Amino acid sequence: MADIAVRAMAAPPSRLLAGVRRGGARLWVGAALTAILVLAALLAPILAPHNPLEQDLLSAQLPPMWMHGGDGAYILGTDSLGRCVLSRLIYSAQTAVIVALIAASLAALIGVSLGLFAGSFGGWVDQFISRLIDVWMAFPPVLLSIVLAAVIGAGLTSVIVAIVVVDWTRFARVVRAETMVQLTRDYAAAARAIGLNRSKVLRLEILPNLVPLLVTLLAVEMGIAILVEVILSFVGISVAGDTPTWGSMIAEGRQIVYQAPWIMALPIGCIIVSVIGLNLLGDGLRLALDPVQRS
Amino acid sequence: MTAALTVDNLRIAIGDTIVLRGASLEVQPGEVRGLVGESGAGKSMLGRAALGLLPSNASIVSGRIAFEGRDLLKMSEGERRSELGRRIALIPQDPMTSLNPVKRVGAQIGRLLRHHLDLSKRAALERAAELLTEVAIREPERVLSLYPHEISGGMRQRVLIAMAFACNPSLVIADEPTTALDVTVQRQVLQLVERLRQRHGSAVLFITHDLGVVAKICRSMTVLHAGRVLEEGETAEVLAHPRHAYTRALLAATPRADRPAETLRPVPPALIDQLWSDARRLDWLDVARPA
Amino acid sequence: MRWGEIIRRLVLVPPTLFGVAVIVFVLLRVVPGDPISMMIPPGASQADIGRLRALYGLDQPILHQFVSWLGQVVQGNFGRSISVRQDVLDLLLTRLPATIELTLLATLIAVVIGVLAALVGILARGRRAEWAVDGGVGVLLAIPDFLWALILLLLFGVLVPLLPISGRIDPQVEIDFHSNFYLIESLLTGRLDVAAALLRHMILPALALALPFSAIIARLLKASLVEAEDQDYAQIARARGYSRPSILLNEVFPNALIPTVALGGVQVTLLLGGTVLVERIFSYEGIGNMAIDAVINRDFPLIQGLVLTFAVLFIVLNLAVDALVTLLDPRLRHG
Ligand SMILES: Nc1ncnc2c1ncn2[C@@H]1O[C@H](COP(=O)(O)OP(=O)(O)OP(=O)(O)O)[C@@H](O)[C@H]1O
Ligand SMILES: [Mg+2]
Fold first, then answer.
1. A18-293 adopts what CATH topology?
2. 3-state secondary structure chain B
3. Which residue does chain A place closest to C144, by CA atoms?
């Protein structure tokens, strides 16, 4: 019985190659951009030329070094407190990656469990979870996460909780629908016919077939998590105090946008690159893992 | 006299497969020619080629398609468009999918009339009502204001026939116009086509599987097989003395009024064998025989 | 048939709203931090705090608070805002029109861009231009509205300062409006200069909201156009001598519109949610911007009122989309 699952999950090398080819340029560009993001986060202490918190009020609001008035010591200039913009950008990547990884995985965990439950049990369990999703979807997600983060209070944990609480529905909805479809397929019926009980069918038959979909959703969700963290920082209720984040850099830059537009422009660039990278990775993975393309 | 339609040595490929391998036929003015052959023989491809409706992955490799002596493939886009729908018309196979579901019947007929005949909106609608009367639709004004899903399949096919004859065409290509209809409606529709054809003096290329229909309404016929013309001539002649084993097989498979369909005689295996050996000898099949 | 479905959905509206109300209410009260702590001056006595809490009813059990609040809401009384000290309903009614106008303008822009992109894409099917349009649409889609807001603000507010980047109208403009629908009112009364001034403020936030939405429209519409063009009636239209652009516009487009509106219409709610940040970024005085302040100040009555307002708007939009689809598709209308 176990070998059914093994066959479904482990792709022989030739299929792996075919998958990578199907993923194409999206997969490569996406993976490369994501890798850059992760490396920046991991190697922040090595890469950053300055301490991101170190203030140098005598050289505040310096433009990037290639612009008029720039200083070679601060490659991308400084903010209004004289902190090194480049170093802050790099350290912000750390926050982004931590939030993205933890929040997206937790949201997936909760969403997938509830979705599997609803999809496979049907009946009142499905009714209850579906209504819950409906009510959830009636909130503007951005507003809901702001409410949550605000009431829980500033901090990394509150940001993560806010994202998880808001975004589990994204997984639950899709997994519920897919489970229902998969359960009607022949192999699920066959598996039950040979005497697998429901939880085994779910674990061995349904879940492996959901993998391509989940991997894609997860990559996209990580992009969303990064964005939500940015939003919360921008509104001023994200990670406490002096931890550098792209969102807080943007919020600060917005105040002095006429004097020092680069302070706002640079973190925006970082966010765009990260989010597009994760989107491309998700797209590429979907193409690579799923021979029959879903629309 | 120039033929209404001349297809000369037409070769059409879809991707790597050749679906027409040098087919030729002529339809004389005012003549009804049946085009028969088994499914996949390339009948629709031939008809669609004449109408400029080939699928985007199909290409005309060689050959000539002429309408009243003028080469359709060499005409300018504008010239061809002014002939299509006006002098060359189509009666489609499936009336359920051939009308635009979100437009009223009147709007669809009206658009055609205004496009080709330069009528005012009012005049077009009046003419449309006349056309519906011609195809024996009662209460034409009411039908004009209905959507396609509100009328029956037979009625839709009448509307499509009315549209085909709306601009007095000299050539009508009918691709199995009755296969999607039920038997009682089939006869009425056939009679209708026959009547309108006579009134307008149009030539018709009638694509069908049904030799019974061919016998009834076509003066001449062409038998197509695997992209090639196998046999052609006066209908009576071909049906009475089929020269090819394939035509005989086709004939044998056709139910006749004097023989109930249940007792339809299966094609004898010997005949099929002969057919395939003919095929190989004559080189009109370069495919292997199916198991 | 179809209208019956819409009525069935209408019946489900009150329970959904009730669910929303319960969740917000409970959520606000079970978590630490309340509005009183945000408003007391340092050094206030415990007794003062107690009196304030009693004033706003925060000393009652949650269930009691909820029932009395709900009783008031049903009568149209949403309570008083704690931070702004005004009637919540009044606040909502003054700010909501600004958001509605912004959303409408954004929808209009998104529809224009999305439809044009889809049409160009399908007309150029199989050519280099299609590829370019698809790529552009992909970029529009990947970047969310608030990032577009920041980018547009930088580009057209700062680097090439063409447009104002904050507020709904210049403060020095003194006009009295009879309603809070400034733009609609000035258009209706023919004061085009005022309308232009309003539009100059709205165009950047509206564009920011519109860009990702336009990409959604473009994708859905193009896919639907491709599918509809393969249908028999569209093929047969070619045999009637109509030109391809005319077939796309007259035969294919009306059919492709139906799935596009059905699937894309729901996404208007995305746009509405987007107003929260975009209004914030452009200091635009709508309910989205107000929502952020309300949350930061823990203004319970205002938050509750706002969330209910958003929920009502979401539901109304979903129903409106359903009604629109029913109007577009004659098969549903008579079915
Ligand atoms: N869109 C297409 N793509 C690829 N091959 C096609 C396509 N349409 C038709 N063909 C192939 O072209 C050949 C001729 O098809 P055609 O439709 O002309 O047959 P037909 O004689 O009209 O058959 P039928 O009686 O079933 O309508 C067939 O072998 C068919 O498989
Ligand atoms: Mg055919």
1. MetI-like fold (1.10.3720)
2. CCCCEEEEEEEEEECCEEEEEEEEEEECCCCEEEEECCCCCCHHHHHHHHHCCCCCCEEEEEEEEEECCEECCCCCHHHHHHHECCCEEEECCCCCCCCCCCCCHHHHHHHHHHHHHCCCHHHHHHHHHHHHHHCCCCCHHHHHCCCHHHCCHHHHHHHHHHHHCCCCCCEEEEECCCCCCCHHHHHHHHHHHHHHHHHHCCEEEEECCCHHHHHHHCCEEEEEECCEEEEEEEHHHHHHCCCCHHHHHHHHCCCECCECHHHCCCCCHHHHHHHHHHHHHHCCCCCCCCC
3. A227
Q: Which residues of chain B are within 8 Å of residue C254 when distances are taken between CB atoms?
A: 100, 102-103
For residues B202 and B170, the answer to whether their CB atoms sit within 8 Å is yes
How crowded is the C-beta side of B213, counted as CA atoms within 13 Å?
Answer: 26
Higher-pLDDT residue of B45 and B182 is B45
Which of A152, A235, A237 faces C280 most closely, judged by CB atoms?
A: A235
Report chain C residues whose CB lies below 8 A from the CB of A271.
Answer: 147
Residues of chain C contacting residue B149, judged by C-beta atoms under 8 Å apart:
330-331, 334-335
Whether C147 and A271 have beta carbons less than 8 Å apart is answered as yes
Give the chain B residue nearest C228 (alpha carbons). Answer: B100
At B9-49, the pLDDT tens digits run 999 999 888 899 899 999 999 999 999 988 888 999 999 99
Burial B9-34 (b: 16+ CB within 10 A, else e): ebbbbeeeebbbbbbebbbbebbbbb
Convert the pLDDT of each residue in B160-179 to its tens digit: 999 999 999 999 999 999 88
* B44 Cα: distance to centroid of ligand 1 (angstroms): 7
The CA-CA-CA angle for residues B45, B51, B52, to 5°, reads 85
pLDDT in tens, C28-61: 777 666 667 666 666 777 777 787 778 777 778 8
Q: Minimal CA–CA distance to C232: which of B175, A227, A175?
A: B175
DSSP class per residue in C86-153: SBHHHHHHHHHHHHHHHHHHHHHHHHHHHHHHHHHHHHTTTSHHHHHHHHHHHHHHHS-HHHHHHHHI
- The C-alpha torsion from C283 through C288 and C290 to C292, rounded to 10°, is -90
Confidence band of C217 (pLDDT split at 50, 70, 90): very high
Q: Which of A151, A261, A295 sits opposite C154 (nearest CB)?
A: A261
Query: Which residues of chain A fall below pLDDT 70?
Result: 1-17, 19-23, 70, 138-140, 186-188, 192, 195-196, 238-241, 290-295
* pTM (predicted TM-score): 0.81
